[in-house]
Amino acid sequence: MNYAERRSLFCEHATAMFRGDRAGAQRTERLIYPRHCAAHQLFVQTLFVACVFEHFGATLDWAELDRFIARLRAERPGVSPLKTEALVRAFYGETGLYREIPQVDHWPCMWTSAQMIVGVDRSDAELSELYEQAESIGREMVKDVFASSGPFGLLDEGAR
After folding, report:
1. What distance in Å separates the CA atoms of residue 7 and residue 106, rounded to the nearest whole number?
2. Judging by beta carbons within 10 Å of its beta carbon (0-12, 13-18, 19+), is residue 53 exposed, middle or buried?
3. Phi, psi for 2 (deg, rounded to 5)
4. Distance CA 6, CA 39 (A)
5. Per-residue b/e over 107-120, b at no fewer than 16 CB within 10 Å?
6. If phi over 0 gives left and psi between -120 and 50 gives alpha, with beta otherwise, what is residue 102?
7. Which pLDDT does position 141 carry in this prediction?
8. What is the pLDDT of residue 149?
9. Can you give the pLDDT at residue 82?
């Protein structure tokens, strides 16, 4: 599978996830896993970051984070609010928090947050724009990781 095919598959999966199409999400997951697991994990992470930056802004709005976590508690009781908050904060400079969250918990926290931010009503064009933004963020993250002397690169602690 070439880059364009894999990207299309990842976007198709994300669209199904955002629109609540469980059958579509499961179908595309079977095509993604296990062969494209690592690439998809990075896609989900950068999609999460794009959603978080869109929602909370370039600088974390702490009051909005409190409201968001309260909403998460009310609407998604099976997802850890503490781990979700830590993952959000990790991308605003508290990079040490990222290592505190077991990898197995990233998927539910990231997808739940992204779904709550995006909702089910975005158009294909709006989702396409979001996917482009996520890809751009991913490129910058990788570039920053290799250029940084810090442990993560993107908004390392102390760089705020």
Report:
1. 21
2. middle
3. -85, 175
4. 9
5. eebbbbbbbbbbee
6. beta
7. 86
8. 73
9. 98
CA–CA gap between residue 149 and residue 146 (Å, rounded): 8
Q: How many residues does the chain have?
A: 160
What is the reported pLDDT for 146?
Answer: 79
Tokens at 139, concatenated: 């490129």
Residues of the chain predicted below pLDDT 70: 150-160
For residues 107 and 44, is the Cβ–Cβ distance under 8 A?
yes
Q: Would you say 52 and 117 are in contact if contact means Cβ atoms under 8 Å apart?
A: yes
Sequence-ordered list of residues with C-beta below 8 angstroms from that of 99, at least 6 positions apart, any chain: none
- Indicate the residue type of 24: G
DSSP 150: S
Helix axes 62-75, 81-90, angle to 10 degrees: 150
State the amino acid at position 112 in one-letter form: T
- Integer angstrom CA distances of residue 157 from 4, 91, 93, 148: 35, 10, 5, 12
Q: What is the pLDDT of residue 150?
A: 65
- pLDDT (tens digit, 9 = 90+) per residue, 31-72? 999 999 999 999 999 999 999 999 999 999 999 999 999 999
Determine the residue type at 122: R
